[in-house]
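Model: Ready when you are.
Researcher: Fold this.
Model:
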Amino acid sequence: MFSRNGGCLAAIVCAFIGILIGVLVGCFGVNSITKEDQKRITTYQKLIEDKWASETDETQMILDLISPTNLRNNLKELSRKPHLAGTVRDDELAMLIQRRFVEVGFDTAELVPYEVLLSYPNHTNPNLITMMDGSKKVVFTSKFKEEVLHEDDEDPDLVHAFNGYSAAGDVTTQPGDGVIYVNYGRVEDFEKLEELGIDVAGHVVMARYGKIFRGNKLLHAEQRNATGVILFSDPGDVALKGTDPEDVYPNSNWLPGTGVQRGWASPLEGDPLTPGWPSTKDAYRLDESEVPLPKIPCQPIGYDDARAILEKMGGRAPPRDWIGGMKGIKYNLGPEMLGEYQDYTLRLQSHNLLRNVNIYNVIGTIKGSVEPDRYVLIGNHRDAWGYGAVDPSSGTAQLLETARVFGQLLKKGWRPRRTLVFCSWSAEEYGMIGSTEWVEEHLEKLQERAVVYLNTDTCAAGPILTPSLSPLIWDSLVKLAKIVPGVREGKTVYDEWAAYYRARNRSSPQLKTLGSGSDFAAFAFYGGIPSMELSFRTDQNKYRISKYPFYHTGYDTFHAVDKFIDPGFRIMQGCGRLASLFLKYFADSALIPYSLQQLSRAVGENLNKVKDKGKGATLLKIYDKFPLLEESAHNFMTATAMFAQKLDSVKDTLDPVMLRAVNDQMMKLERVFIMPAGLPGRPTVRHAVFAPSQFDSYAAAGFPGISDLLYKIDDLQEEELSKRHKEIRRHISDLTILLQKASGLLEDFNLI
């Protein structure tokens, strides 16, 4: 932290300045102070001013200005047509957002291009799943596009249902044999099949969406030598009120049987051809053959089509909790077909194409008046699999309204202490490509200057505040949630949030760290920049579902949001208010409002989770220095507590130099956890303490490298086991050193 006498020095400097000003005023009167003296006094006051604390009128102005009407109008325009990445409409929206940034008075608003590899279906040769009887007659053909159920649904540019980056292929099963139902396609689901003596090798597998990232489902199947994958949304996850027309879209917010979830299905993030470096025009690119993209075809279908396949499947009955929500379907595991269908074959045809295309990020800035070289960033992606009214356009509608509100503040003479950066990303739906390439291009600047990144991908999928974030941001979020008016019946967003947790027998909201799945990933896991995903999601106390029913389908429309998800646009207004206050709080607080003790507490809690279920004993057996990791975690908790205590005692007396130095200590703390070579086996995931799970990219994991290395360790043969033990010892040593470094960063400035 500060030098050992730093607090006293700061107090002396402040006292001296105060006395000097008093003497000048007392002896010579205000008019006798020279212009140079006044300029110095004004500059000093500007350097130490806490604009967040002093500008209460601006805080109220933000709350008042976020307009539901503007949000509704923004969303209507943004979701008017499909806007898949790399298409004309996505480019049009990029230019629209750039114009808006210019119109509201931003200092800069730029289109930033990248040339990237994207995946598309062949619209002249649709992906199909067909079934043929013994006479080779086609008795079933899957739909490759939703039925038009409302006027908002009809557009010739709506992309066919497909899974991005899944391989082109043509797979046919043996007569009466070949399809296996694998529940959600999780590791534990495949392990259950192995226990039951069912081998998926050589078969097409059929998995329902939900629980984990679709790319992990495909990877798990490919690793076990399946020949293809069929994904479907089950009514038990997306149509909980029933599947009759009156119970689903366009008459409610539940998914009808023709709704098909699209989505990228590759384990990679960023442009596949430029891993670790930005895909600028003249960048070196790998050959497509060098890229580890999926090797087997994968095709999504709706539950109407899934029924036509599942009803014909025989084989072993499923575990009870594998039975979905289709009435009259037994969800048999296969691979045998039922007696009357024993001459049937299933054919999976995928004709996906890879294309190099240009995409555009939009980057707008409001220059800071005191620390222009410190960045507070907000962003969300712009591209969508269809109309994208919820994902991502609810976030983009908010981004535009937040920009307008800050433009109004600028017109009144306000300017932030630190620079605000507004980001509209493209190609997020293909693996966070736009944001990843931008972070890779500006990594050194961001690691040196970025204060925080706020992501607002899905502002309004439901009424419940559902953030995931770096623990450093937690206390600030709680504080701001207590200011923002509620989006339902509660006095504040925090009141509603707390009530949700009380219904789950929790006394208060619980901190959830980040998994992957949106544009915060490169900031958090590659750059070590404190980040938050701000979203409002479905009430899990009422409906235990993943995401929201229309997710990534052709029915994620303005009509769905306007009539069912957020009529009145109060949820989106709450999201906009919270995002705007968050930006101002981190941009204008003299002392950056990080929660160091929340970070150290999360480190300790996650290490304890790693040790659970006997893993601690296993690690100690493998590496007798494992207790040093525990000791370093404890020392880090002590160091953060001491730092916080010292800072609290002197924070009101810090001179500008000390203030800047303390802020830099805190800002760079999480960067210490970045491992340059990445986690074991995962070079692009570099955060050693908080990162996505290896087996579900959506899920958060603490100390994920340890969990990865322990996975199935008991199944390894002697040579592989010895190698794995060596990797574990090395990784535990690395973690111990990182935590020691983090503690050292919080020491007095004069100590190296």
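Researcher: Now this one.
Model:
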Amino acid sequence: MRILKRASEFILRRGVNTFCNNDMLFRVHPSVSQALAENKPVVALEGTIITHGMPYPHNLSTAKEVEAIVRAEGATPATVGVIKGEIHVGLSSDELKHLAQCESPLKVSRRDLPYVISKGLTGGTTVSATMIAAHRAGIPVFVTGGIGGVHRDGQNSMDISADVTELGRTPIAVVSAGVKSILDIGRTLEFLETQGVCVATYGLSKNFPAFFSPNSGFASAYQVCDPCEAAKLIASTLSLGLQSGVLIAVPIPEAHAADGQLIEEAIQAAVTEARSDGITGKDVTPFILQKVNDLTQGKSLRANIALIHNNAKAGSQIACALSREISAKALRSEIHHPGKIQTDCESNVVVIGGINVDFIAKGKTKTLHFGHTNPGSVCQSFGGVGRNIADSLSRLDNRPLFLSATGADANSDAVLNYCKNMNTSGVARLAGHRTATYCAVITESGELSLGLGDMDIHQQITEQYVSKFERQLSSAALVCLDGNIPVSTINYVCSLAKQHNINVWYEPTDAEKACKPFLSDTWKSLSYSSPNVAELCIMNKTLGIATPEVLPTSLDEILSIVVALSRPLLEHLHCLVVTLGPNGVLLCGEHDTGSVNLQPRKQKRRRQLCALHYPALTVTTEETMNVSGAGDSLAGSLMAGILLGKDTDTCVRMGLLAARMSLASSHPIAPELSLDSVNPNKVKTQAWPEPRLIWIDKNFIV
């Protein structure tokens, strides 16, 4: 078997939606979705403050006031609630009112979510359920009044709120007035430490607040003085990938803290009454809050509203500071996957395209029988043409900026965590969408038997989104586009290329998408393209040029057809890299001392056109593990060689070596890929065959 044999037949560059459709259970409000897509600050808010925190109409007015405070601080509010079995992240005015007036709404914690959804019920989300929804939507900051914890006498009753265990397993920053003072605060702090939760008091001391009182008699482990310090703490926590949250404890404003002793006495009385009346579980908190409000003649309610307002202001300022921190240092990529990227460095290459989670099922028999269970192995890897090329460039001493889109889901977390060697600060995580995944079933010999693909998320790599990076695009030495992105985005980038004299490389990804730039004059702004023979035919056919209905099998006839089909495209393109499967690769472009000039042309001039054929390197069936990235490895390594100013022969040999490494790896781009591993002078291989020069046009004038 030869290199690229299966890569040319395999559907290398597909994206698929995740198998589970869980995101359909989440309804993200358009204002929240837009803010997240634009990397603007968003603050999640708890639903039980509306449904169980205080009576109507105080609950509705407080909810609206809190959202107004969040907006005034420059963030977007995302109040979370469950309405008729759907989890809403962000509520309209009517939905807020519906929750506030709802008769017998449920108090929905992590435990309750499955039942409430299955029955189509309505309720307010507790801290734990709100954290789950916020994390699923991609919101890193959540503001509430006070969290639950270990109840008094909890060492005997084992009554411990799900809030504290959720903080131990969901990476969200929770801003609250500490824990509710009706709880055992000391044991709650001990339990949070056991769960690995970082706890910090917001202000000038480490005193841990007790909801209505700024001082519980206990201390936080740490202290942050202002929004910037809090944002850095949150960013550091997320970048470590610990999968645990942060608790920022904000003391109640001094003006309302004076009533703290009166309220505490009322709490003690209410707790005693609750015990004597046999009130337990989730009914305890609403009972005590109502009783305390009665005993204090409304002072506790006013203090409750004041601290919620204060938390909303502090939390919004922290969310804005976190957004600035991410924007300033491109921490967005580091939050999802810590790596060695120096995010303040400029990228000289921009790659725009797909990112996928791949599932490859390989049979252990020569023939697969559909309708039956076949023996085999299944492995997960991470691909997508754009991602593969950006990964390849990153491992070959370039630092491309990668622009793409994923959902805000577990597959996104997995693939971004894997891409720690890359600059993925330009990858948008979009709530309400699913990260592209690809499932392929291949035979024992590596031939594709069945592939499933759905690239809906790639349509979100829009012209509007990509235009946010116009400065980087306009100054790039090379921009690479893969065919998964929308036609309008391709047209936009090519218009920039024409305006700023940018070199654009188009990787068509498959025959159906090869035509995209050729639907208009957009293609005339391309400099490079790397199609296979089928894709090259589609490009010509789209331009109205006749192409053969059936491709020949002999190498000479194939080369003759490719040369003829390359000629019209080279009127504007600088170079074509045509992959030929088991027959290697054919470079078509400007003749330069017996070779093809791969280096970008500086000006249009009279030139002679030729093609250079390189046979493939041999790879045995036993050596082949994965055929999903060989073509992308070839293209990425060619680009790296061009950017490093290497001669054509070195560039092509780098590409062929990288492709061979890909075939022998379980990953589309071999993790071992490096400049040394593809250095033709250092890698032992069979004797390099001499490339074959073919003239296309000796008198071609541009």
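Researcher: Key takeaway?
Model: The two ends are 40 Å apart (CA to CA).
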